Amino acid sequence: MITVALPKGSLLKDSIELFKAVGFDFSGLLAKDNRQLQIVDSSAQARGLLVRAKDVPVYVEYGQAQIGIVGYDVLREKQPKVAHLADLGFGGCRLSVAVANDSGYLSAMDLPPHCRVASTSVNSARQYFQAIDLAVEIVPLSGSVELGPITGMSEAIVDLVSTGTTLRQNNLTELDVLYYSTARLIAHPLSYRLNDDGLSDVIQRLKAASSAASSAQKTSARV
Amino acid sequence: MITVALPKGSLLKDSIELFKAVGFDFSGLLAKDNRQLQIVDSSAQARGLLVRAKDVPVYVEYGQAQIGIVGYDVLREKQPKVAHLADLGFGGCRLSVAVANDSGYLSAMDLPPHCRVASTSVNSARQYFQAIDLAVEIVPLSGSVELGPITGMSEAIVDLVSTGTTLRQNNLTELDVLYYSTARLIAHPLSYRLNDDGLSDVIQRLKAASSAASSAQKTSARV
Fold it and tell me: Which segments constitute the ATP phosphoribosyltransferase catalytic domain (chains A, B) (predicted)?
């Protein structure tokens, strides 16, 4: 039986739809009163584990799940030892530098040296500021990063932006994009190479279903 | 104006009640549809910041909040540079080692060397196993640690336990307690020493209100 690590949160619905398209039904995990952390598909060919988005690569890296779906942002931040198989197209967002609207900064280069930057993506933020050769102090937070500039704790933030609503509501402006992120299909490298439980076939079907869904979306967008 | 960092989650209600007892009303943060991350008390003497429990010591350490309420578990795990002022008595829980009911292990010492232990409290778990001189591999997770033994990823977990319901539901047994935790009052060391905005007075009142609440609870428990 194949085990699949599925991310709690914003990527879950699309992830479950993708698996449904290749014949694995994990939709029980979407029920409002669901408290299950694992579910076996009715065909008994696959098991779904519902884990925190950040933990998906951990389960896959340790081989407890052969495949998983996770945001590119998590892969960039954590650098797990997993095989990165496909861009699934959904869950688009970007990691951006933002500052208070009234800060007067027009680019990240304008930030004063040694200023504070609050972020949950500490590694990505550090790499970015090293690349632009600006020494800043990264303040590691676990959430609600937008409070940083509001309270005066930090001059800037590095945070994931999808619609931009949170930034607007908190009077913040994006200055620069570190990278764009979408949902990715990952696999345990050894399981993938050894083709455990016909894994390659499942992966091919997932890739095909994902491309079909993307083209359908593009066509409907054109019409 | 004093700024107070309040923890989202299980400690929030009791924290807000404690501040209410000393005259600061932050209860707007408890409203079901609340989306505010900060609130000014009606007396305009204090501002409450609603942040992730783990971020409370960050806001206090950086001086953005003069005081905060946070679980002892977070202080033990993160070792932030904050003044630890009082045990507030509520939010009791413990950090425990647990294994599957059918594992056969009767104590943490029975665990096989180099086995895997899943935890969100990586530092505390590492210190514990070093102290009992057992070399284990700590698997860092961000949540739903109970999946570790269920999926076979880890032999044991180190996790916070309050009622024990989660352990029972997942067929897990506690082997040992690393430490007990309750909500603590913390302060920014320098603000505390300089008595910014009459901070000492507020802290004295909070301590008194907390002791009063504890004794009332003990009396009612006796009756």
Answer: 52-207
